[in-house]
Amino acid sequence: MNKNKYLLLISSLGCLALLLVAAAQENIFKPWRRIQSAARAEAGPIEVKLRQIVVPGLRTADRCVTCHVGMAPGESGVTGPKVVAAHKRMPHDPADFGCTVCHAGQSYATEKADAHGDVPHWPSPMIPAKYAYAGCGSCHTHVRVPNTTALERGRLVFQRLDCYACHRVDGRGGTLRVGGAHGMEGPDLSSAGATGYDPRWYEKHLAKSEWKNLFGPINAADRADLAVFLDSHVGAPGLVEAKALFHSLGCRGCHKVNGVGGDDGPDLTRAGQRDPALTDFSRVTGERTLENWHKQHLRDPARIVPGSAMPAMGLTDEQIEQLTFYIFSLRHSNFPEAYWPKDRIRAERFGEREFATDGATLYTTFCAACHGANGEGRRYPGMPLFPAVGNPDFLAVASDEFLAQAITRGRPGRRMPAWGEKEGGLRPEEISAVVQHLRRLGGPAEPDTKPSRWAQGDVAAGKKLYAVNCAGCHGADGKGGEALALNNAGLLAAASDTYLFKTIERGRRGTAMPGFTQASTVHPALSPEEIEALVSFIRTWEKR
Prior knowledge:
single chain; Cytochrome Bc1 Complex, Chain D, domain 2; 5 domains; two-stranded antiparallel ribbon
């Protein structure tokens, strides 16, 4: 009997001790309590309590401000450890939307690892701090973003014209001049692309004689470049630049984003919301984080995802950093439309493009990954040659109609999609803009007064000539090899006999395709009759 009493007593004391420890941990030793105890308001210590931001319209409640006290409504003046600092200046009040809407993580948690989502099975870890502005992609869909070249040109104009003398942009500029004059006289332009700016700014600047004497007139081209620069600043430093790089590398040629792009690669619309638990980290070196996975995948896709059709594009460290930033921004909130920003409404309700629709940006966005940034052509290991569409010899014999048809209908059986016919492709006016951009790259087409089909050569002779001179590169059946496929329904439907004849006659400078009117060490010269026979033989594939 006494043994049972002692056992009961010991058990009771043990339970009491556990309860005391639990109470102490909860009410004394919690990290957030220590953080708040070290914080100070203007009047003295702050009240130590759980804090949260509740947004009924979004059905969110975030307790992040329990540690990040300075980010709670009405407590931005709190001082103390770095963690209690106020939120960086934003175009909108963070308290209007909460924290996890932008930063992800676990909203109800108050322990650091739990709140940041760095725990097993939590599908939405916090975006790494250095990519914090990627969270803007949860709600925003930045529209009409140009390519990197146009963006850089605008930045250089802004710098060359010394606009930083009076205006701050992303924390830079507005510096005082000698004697304290002309320093930060104009507004901060860090969010000009989101909040808008006076379209008559130039006329108003000219009306100020002092400004006109100090800076002078600005030509129309520079003003256009300045508009590109200003429109790209939306209060999220670096994010639009990262998106511009995505457009410059031609990634949409293979990947869809928000329904627009190619189908060869996975849809990236929600790539920034990748679930770590569903990600294979077995081939990732170093920390098993999503940041590491994305960076190593961008550097060497086939090593991280065996069998991946994505080529290693030879990206620099800086480009990989920017693309990782952009990928983290590819997320999508399902909040009520009343909370949507204007850019998202313009994109989703009015069909406005996320990329600029000038020919240069359209070309780099959809075509550059395969055909090269300047149409010089590309070749990746294990893949067929992508032709040089900016080659002057090609453009001299390719009519605008030929180019438009090639873009519209693609090349059946090849990686070139029918951009004018597929869902998520290009609109007719966009295809026309791409054609005009190619003309700027390589020059105009030569006039062709002959009918589309005029070759009447000897097909049997053409077959023999093809086997000797062409099959080694284009394949015995014309299906391609070292060179592009001639036995392709899309090519044969769009190409005229003059196009085929002159291509064989002249070749293509800067490529492996020689001109056959002059003999070389590897092939004899062909007469016009022999070239016509070759064209007639190639046409036989069209009839099969």
